[in-house]
Specification:
219 residues; alpha+beta; eight-stranded mixed beta sheet; binds coenzyme A
Length: 219
């Protein structure tokens, strides 16, 4: 995965934020690529996302969207509150149309390889990177993965801390892995997803995140 370009101080979300985790579709790609440009040194070409979403049967990608309950309703929406309510399930909730994070993985037999994971610099430090990791761990387990793995830059200490919090550890280096600047990659592996200790830690971390964040899953 690419290099992080920003680090944000820890902050808490406002009480009025709700996040939705859902499958990435072609409609999300422009927003995702804009976000990617802000998060990584070398973004993927657009075609890579199309390939991943349309042709790679091993791939699973998700986005995290923010629903702002305090957002101003657009004029046409205000004239049709029934429609809004049907779409967003609440009188004042307005879809902000904003992707604030995304992640992806490849299911390779019984291993899940995390290919990308990023949170908008405006929303970092709120637990959203962890929420994406929780979501892709659940997807991996549901598809029968026994372990998860990823590559991360040695310089990307924030990402490493996130993965370590969820039981990943470094197991080797791929020299000059990143073609843009030749940086090595640290290869990280999770513990066995099915192991009792690992499941218990995951549940505790997920419960703790639930107390911190409000999210709905549409996966
Ligand atoms: C890495 C990234 C996804 C983390 O997302 P985030 O939403 O900011 O992280 P969270 O708020 O969910 O934090 C989860 C954990 O990450 C670690 N972490 C997050 N920010 C940190 C910081 N500034 N310093 C140290 N550790 C930090 C902590 O372990 C934290 O757990 P805690 O809240 O119990 O302290 C985000 O920084 C990002 O998108 N970076 C750019 C893209 C990138 O590098 N992706 C990873 C490629 S491998």
């Amino acid at each position: 995965m690419g290099q992080n370009l920003s680090a944000a101080p820890a902050k808490r979300p406002t009480d009025r934020e709700t996040f939705i985790v859902e499958a990435m579709t072609i409609e999300h790609v422009d927003e995702v690529r804009e976000l990617e440009r802000r998060c990584f040194l070398t973004p993927w070409p657009k075609e890579s996302f199309y390939y991943e979403l349309e042709r790679n049967c091993m791939a699973r990608y998700i986005v995290l969207r923010r629903v702002a309950e305090d957002a101003e309703a657009p004029a046409e929406a205000a004239e049709s509150p029934g429609l809004l309510q049907r779409i967003f399930g609440g009188c004042n909730r307005v879809h902000s149309n904003s992707v604030v994070g995304f992640a992806g993985l490849w299911m390779m037999v019984d291993e899940a390889h995390i290919t990308t994971l990023a949170v908008s610099p405006d929303h970092q430090g709120k637990g959203l990177g962890e929420l994406l990791l929780v979501a892709i761990t659940e997807i991996s387990a549901a598809h029968g993965a026994k372990m998860m793995t990823l590559e991360v830059r040695p310089s990307n200490l924030i990402a490493q801390k996130l993965y370590e919090k969820h039981g990943f550890s470094g197991h080797g280096v791929r020299p000059h892995y990143y073609s843009d600047d030749g940086e090595d990659a640290v290869v990280m592996w999770s513990e066995e997803l099915g192991a009792a200790k690992s499941r218990q830690r995951f549940q505790e971390l997920r419960d703790s995140l639930r107390r911190r964040l409000t999210w709905e899953s549409k996966l």
